[in-house]
Specification:
single chain; 576 residues; alpha/beta; globular
Length: 576
């Protein structure tokens, strides 16, 4: 059946049609929709895990039981899952296991631009990389067979453009794989040093077989032009850009299996063209491989290792004239992302900023608190780093600095990797204050459930973690809850907990204003005759508030009536 699909939906359809029985993931743009689409299939088990390591280990458990399984994550999530992944390379699989990873060239929603192909190389695990939705479906569907045939997990690499662009996909229907019965195999699955030493040679033998597969497989193909002056080796999105710029006028070696890379196929292709180029986004993985074969090639000398490519990038690199249909787009005003009107994080950030508090931040919507006019954050590193980081910061700082430093972390991120940092604070006793910004959802990636919300991936009731009880169980004696819409309560809580002589947690609790069950109040309004244009309300950075004709103005199409701005106006100019 032919359907128009985005790449992530195509991956989900391919995994399902390939016989998937279980998927476990942690949401992360641009990978999130893979698992969301899979959750619509009621005959498989789908779930959100607390983090990517747990998701990968859950998929391993299902594979161990003989079922075909998968997990999905963004590129930085693969860092978290790397611990089980590298040893999975040694153990191999029973049921096929596919690890979907989505890279983010140009960092549309990420804190770095790492290239996941390095993980495939380092872990000695085969990787497939589709160039459009149709290939995403086919590669995902065939990945289970590849996994079981070679006794290995398989990495499926997506990127932002492929994940979210669309094309026609011809689905084949579900294949129900016969589940392999569980058999106890200590030497295969118990990775003590004695067993692991025996498994490493097996991994190397498998790699040699996979290299042979790479020489002649459906994932890699040579497309020769009549004129063979130019030959281009490329993969992923770059393949589409090359075809759009050159059509069939240049020869192309399309790499759909970036690990392990072929050798004979590349040598043969290089021998059949006059000038060889490699066009690949991010790092020179293919280029370095070609050079290691002793072949002269041009790659990063023309193409940057930074950001995304485009048709324009390739035309300019080859000195080609712009397309006739190129439209000159005038420079547009910058529109940086910001917290929504009524965002529950804004009130707490305003208090922290006004009191000149040093704030170690984390990954989520609240990272937007770093922007003007709040400028509330001092650092953002990775999931959970705020809690671990404040412990190290305070451990080497004097009492004066400690008394004006906090960490902020979201409820989902706290469950992902903040808990262990809080244990460290309690166990190693730094006088640190952690603020959990509990908006009752995983917000930045599009409102996915998490263990604190009380619902699972399908929206069914599930166990709900009690954050207050959890923090106390982790060793924190001082735990309190505040409403971030109440600025005075927030300021009192922050000052009191920073003054305390023991670790503490403040839970800033109010659900995300965009949740369907959250009903906005009537917009507030400005009484212009009372407004003195002091602009104090502008210090919130609320997108509903602006200045017009020298007076504050509130856009009633954006305002949700949170009332935070009313608490700032010294002239009572903002009313209901």
């Amino acid at each position: 059946m032919k359907r128009l699909m985005i790449g992530n939906e195509a991956v989900a359809a391919g995994l399902y049609d390939g016989g998937l029985e279980l998927v476990s993931s942690y949401p992360g743009t641009p990978s999130t929709e893979i698992t969301e689409f899979l959750s619509a299939y009621d005959d498989i088990h789908s779930e959100w895990a607390p983090n990517e390591k747990v998701a990968c280990e859950t998929a391993f458990g299902a594979s161990l039981a003989g079922a075909r399984s998968a997990c999905a994550m963004k590129h930085v999530g693969l860092n978290v899952a790397a611990d089980p992944l590298f040893t999975l390379s040694y153990t191999g699989v029973t049921g096929g296991l596919v690890v979907c990873v989505a890279d983010d060239p140009a960092m549309h929603s990420s804190q770095n631009e790492q290239d996941s192909r390095h993980y495939a190389i380092a872990s000695k695990i085969p990787m497939l990389e589709p160039s459009d939705s149709a290939e995403a479906y086919e590669f995902a569907r065939s990945a289970f067979e590849l996994s079981e045939r070679y006794d290995t997990p398989v990495l499926l690499r997506m990127c932002t453009r492929i994940a979210h662009s669309q094309c026609i996909v011809d689905t084949k229907g579900r294949t129900t794989a016969e589940r392999k019965p569980y058999v106890k195999q200590p030497e295969k699955y118990i990775m003590t040093p004695a067993n692991a030493k025996k498994k490493h040679p097996v991994v190397e033998e498998r790699t040699a077989k996979l290299k042979e597969l790479a020489e002649n497989c459906v994932y890699n193909r040579a497309e020769y032009a009549a004129d063979r002056k130019i030959g281009i080796i490329t993969s992923g999105c770059s393949y589409l850009y090359v075809k759009e710029v050159f059509g069939d006028s240049v020869s192309v070696l399309k790499i759909g299996m970036p690990n392990p890379l072929p050798e004979r196929l590349i040598r043969e292709f290089a021998d059949n063209v006059e000038k060889l180029y490699v066009i690949e986004e991010l790092d020179p993985v293919i280029e370095d491989h070609v050079r290691a074969l002793g072949i002269d090639v041009t790659g990063k000398a023309l193409f940057s290792p930074i950001g995304e490519f485009s048709q324009k990038t390739i035309r300019e690199a080859f000195g080609l004239a712009p397309e006739k249909n190129d439209i000159s787009i005038p420079a547009l005003p910058g529109r940086p992302p910001m917290m929504c009107a009524g965002c529950p994080h804004r009130g707490m950030f305003y208090v922290l900023s006004r009191n000149h508090i040093t704030v170690l931040g984390d990954i989520g919507c609240y990272t937007l608190g770093s922007g003007a006019p709040l400028n509330a954050l001092d650092s953002t590193l990775c999931m959970g780093a705020s809690v671990s980081g404040i412990h190290g910061f305070n451990a080497v700082s004097g009492a004066e600095q400690t008394k004006k430093t906090v960490a902020v972390i979201g409820d989902s991120t706290f469950m992902h990797s903040g808990m262990t940092g809080l244990v460290n604070i309690a166990y190693n006793a730094t006088n640190s204050t952690v603020i959990i910004l509990d908006n009752s959802i995983t917000g930045m990636t599009g409102h996915q459930q998490n263990p604190t919300t009380g619902y699972n991936i399908k929206g069914d009731p599930a166990s709900k973690v009690d954050l207050e009880a959890l923090c106390r169980a982790l060793g924190i004696g001082r735990v309190r809850v505040v409403d971030p819409y109440d600025l005075q309560a927030c300021e009192t809580a922050v000052k009191e907990e920073l003054a305390a002589e023991e670790p503490s947690v403040i839970i800033s609790r109010r659900p995300c204003v965009l949740l369907k069950y959250v009903k906005p109040k009537a917009p507030v309004r400005v009484e212009t005759e009372k407004c003195r244009a002091c602009k104090r309300c502008m210090g919130l950075g609320c997108p509903a508030i602006s200045m017009k004709n020298g007076k504050a103005r509130i856009d009633n199409t954006l305002c949700v009536g949170c009332g935070v701005c009313r608490q700032l106006c010294a002239f009572n100019a903002i009313g209901e």
